[in-house]
Structures are given as structure tokens and as C-alpha cells.
Amino acid sequence: MEITYLEAIRQALWEEMERDKRVFMLGEDIGVYGGAFKVTKGLLEKFGPERVIDTPLSESAFVGAAIGAALMGMRPVVEMQFSDFIACAFDQIVNMAAKHHYRIGEPIPLVIRAPYGGGIHAGPFHSQCPEAWFFHVAGLKLVAPSTPADAKGLLKAAIRDPNPVIYFEHKYLYRHIKGEVPDSDTIVPIGQAEVKRPGSTVSVITYGAMLQHSLAAAERLLSEGIDLEVVDLRTLQPLDMATIASSVKKTGRVMVVHEAPKTGGIGGEIAARIAEELFQYLDAPIVRVAAPHTPVPFSPVLEEAYLPNPDTIAGKARELAGF
Amino acid sequence: MMGVQQPAQAELLNIYYYLKLTRGLEQRVITLYRQGKIVGGVYLGTGEEAIAVGSAAALEPNDVIAPTHRDLGANLMKGITPKEYMAQYLAKQTGITRGRDGNVHFGDIRRGIIGFISPMADLLPVAAGVALTFKLRRERRVVAAFFGDGASSRGDFHEALNFAAVLKLPVVFICHNNQYAYSTPLSRQMAIEHVADRAKAYGMPGITVDGNDVLAVRDAVAEAVARARAGDGPSLVEGKTMRMRGHAEHDDASYVPPALLEEWRARDPIDRFTAYLRDQKVLDDASAKAIDDRIAKEIEEAVLFAESSPLPDTKDLLEGVYAA
Predict the structure, then answer these.
(1) Is A68's CB within 8 Å of B156's CB?
(2) Scanning every residue of chain A, which has its alpha carbon at the shortest distance from the alpha carbon of B100?
(3) Residue B2 has pLDDT above 70, yes or no
(4) Which of A161, B267, B286, B311 has the greatest count of CB atoms below 10 A from its CB?
């Protein structure tokens, strides 16, 4: 049966809480209300108020508390109502959680669910893609699924991982996409990208909501004889350079597509690593398609102009194919 | 104090030992620092030992502490050894963090110590989370979470105390009100007189005690611990004290009025407790010498151990970013 991306996340939470009594949730409005996006709807009724804990409006407190619980061997999953608000807990994440194992050797099995991304006309404080803020920090794992099956399998992997994992769940995808999800206890391992569409002309390296746009661009270009290979990173940290490398070696032309601003974005690191490690396989310059260096604007016309879309992706791919 | 047991002679001598061991180790670190043997800064609790030791004396063995950089005494009482402490200061492989972090930035949850980090008040939410775990697991354990007057200006202090009060968590928040946060005096830190006054805003008891009276600290913390253990939620205990040295040893603290230091020197917590023990006939010249000699020997063994320990191996530089 096909389910939505949002339902896949809820299934993963439900199944992991049934499987492991150490798993519990902390966050704002996640219990009685079922979460701002209703991801946690029904979990309070099923698991009770000691495992689905509504907290005060205190991102730093509930992330810090989750770190403390993780230190004691619990498996906390916290929900940021919007990933934009993760800034309020930045210090706990980057100074406390991320460095603890390297410093002291004690694991911090913590999952932070971070609803992120634009395309829902929500303005500068409900639309950001903050993954690059954390990409720079050693000790964190970052995942960003783009399909229901990956959403479920990666959340299960994140909950079972002994490290702090930020799970970027794209708000636009919540109810916009459906897909088959394995019934069984299927895990999508952290650290493995997947070729979502094999192709031969240009490698498109992407993740999140941009996967769908990249696949749409690929369909448009097929009639022009341009055959895009679309690589879905799924995990942003640690990067799966092996999968990236095999695609680059196959096509010799690379574009990195992400929704976050181009400046200081993850695409810059990917491009640099390809240039450093795979230069001899390149037939053209590496291209990035990403948002401009502005806050996410509110008005729909502005936001549409801000976000990469199948047209902008196809346009750049066409240029790259003709280089 | 209601429900607080008066300490037996053995416990009094134990408190004396840890006060003196703390002072002795830190004095030795000052010497090593002046000899250029210490890597990085030196952060001491000189003059504030009674808060760390008195608080830790009020805990059960399986309780947990969230220390600050002025709580060596509490760390020692939770099982940190002088040897690993010295090795930590010398950035050696045998230090508590194996050279990954320095000086007072260490912890070991197996021994009930949450690892201290530099941003002030960060450990308070973490302590609340440890206390939440105890509550969820129905374990009758308590967390003692230390912080300073400066840390009480940070958002994490507010968030943690509010969170712990709303969720009724078994945690005791213990303030070293030592008058200065680096060079910033209390008057530039807050517009109230007592940090404990802030407790009212969170709906928890707030008690101010003489932080240089180790038994007063012990009794106040013991009462708050009993309350927490009974499921009645958190408390705030403020110990009034004075930071008798600089923020760290590089800092000559010339911004502190000398008269203020003199005033507090007369209230030295270890001198006062020693006089009390002698007055109570718990301590005499012979027993004091026996304890002091034992401490001196432990400190010298610790220095020898640290100096002869290997430095970390650079081949391990990249190891342990992630847990396996």
C-alpha cells in the first residue's frame, strides 16, 4: 500500500517505540495536539504521557534534556516544531551533543526531527534549510530522506544509531508524495546514497524536495537526448563519496542541486571534493543549482523565483550537457 | 533542619579530607602552572570548596552531579582520582579525557559525573534530562546541578529550571554565588540580591546559605535532595561565597577590591571547618597531621604519575568522532 511521506515518519516512530521501550519523544505540542504537522498524532494515546512528552517552549531545554536522557541510555527523539527554531538549541547540539563522544567516549544516541524546507509559503522563519549549519560540525550525522520508504528506513536507522542524528524531514513532501514502504522492519543505512534514476549524460547530485524536481527535469530532457543520472544523497553527513564517485566516473558531468542557499551550502563541499578527488574524470566544470543568498521570501511569486525548480534544473543541465 | 541527619564523626573527617585534598591539589596545580608544565588554563575553586564538598556529601553513591569548573571537590567525591586529574591538566593519555579535552572539562557518567563544557549553564538542561530519566524509570536517584552567578544570566538556566519545575524532576540546582563572573561583578550580572530569589519564578523553593560553611551547605542540599527523592520536584540552593583567585590563573583579578578579598579570607571555609572540628574534639594535631600527610603523598604520587604518563598518540587523532 502506498503511504505519504508523513505517514512513513509516523510509522517509523510507532514501530520503534513498540520495539524499544527506551525510545521516547520530547517536543512542543507533540502529544495532545499531535504535532504542528500532525506527525505524532495518535502516539500519545498509544504510548502514554511518559513516552510522548509535551514540553514548555524551550528548545535548548528539551534538546539538552534529551542529551541527558541519551547519556543515561535512553533513546530520545525530539521534534523541532520547525527546523528554523533549531537555532534556539544550536549550542546544545554543536557544543554538548556533537563533541561528547570524541571528548569523553560516551555515546549520545539522540534524534532531532527537523521539519525543514520551503514551497509552502511560510516565509523566512518557517521555510529554511539549515543543514549546512550543522554539516561543518564533527560528531553529528545528518540525514534528509526524499521518499516515504527512505523516510521510514532512515528514521529507524537514526533511532538505532548511537550518535546524535539530525533528521531533516521536508515539509513540502509531507503530503505531496506517496510511495510504497516495506512492511517489514527495513532499515535504510545511514551513509548510503542511492541512484534514483540511472542515466548517462549528467550526474545530478541532490536530496530532499529537490529530488522530485530533478526527476521531473530528467523526464523533460529525455526527448532532447539528455539522460540525467539522479543521485539521492539521503545522508548528508557522513557523505557517501563512493556513490558520488561512481556516478561522476560514469557521466563526467556533474551538477549539485539543493534548496538551501548556494553560498556556504553543502553543494560547495561536494563540488570541492569532486574537484580534489575526481578531477581527471570531469569533462566539464561542476555546476551548482541552489537558492540565492537571501532569506526565504514570503510572497508566493518571490518564493517561486527563489526556489530551484524543474525548469532551472533542466536549463543548467542542458548547458552542462552541451559544454 | 527537618529530616536531615547530623553527620557522624567519620563523615565529618571525610568532608575534612576532601576539602583539604581539593585545596591541596589545586595549590599543586598552581605551582605546576608557574613552572610552565600545565597545558592551557587553570580553573580553581579556591575559597569555594565547601559548596562542592558540602553538596556532594549530601548525595547517595548512585546520585549524579553536573559540576562546574569550581567543583573539583564534588568530582573527587564521585571517584575522580588525583592521578587522572593531574594527567588531565598535563594533557596526557592517562587523563580523564585522554587528551581530548583539558583541565576541568571532563566527566564519566559511570561514576555519576556529567562532563562539564565551557558554555555556562549548558549542563543544567542536561542534568534535567538525567533527572527525567530517573523519573521515567522510577529510580529514586537525584541530580545535583552546579552553576555560578554568571550562568544564571543565561537562557539555559531559565529554560532548565522552568523545565525541571514543570516536569517535577528530581534535581537540585546549586549556585556558587562567588560575586564575580570573570571580571563582571554581581551588580552587573543581576538587579536582585540573591540568585535564590529567582526560584520563586519557577515555582520551586529557593534557599540562600553561607557557602563557606560546609555543614550549612550540606544540610540545605540534603533537604533539597530529600525533597527531590520524594518526588516533590527541584529546588535551588544558593551558596554565598567568594572567588579568591582570578577567573583562571592568567587573571590577576586586579578588578576585585582587596578589602573584599580580605573580608572573605577571614571566612575561609577550610579554616572554619578545621576550627569547628578541633572545637568538637573530632580532630586533633595527630589526626590532622595523619590526614594532611596522606593527602600530600597522594598529590605527589599524582604529579609523578601525570609527569611520567605518555602523551596521546597522534595516530588516534581522527578516532572517536562517532560512537560505533
Answers:
(1) no
(2) A103
(3) no
(4) A161
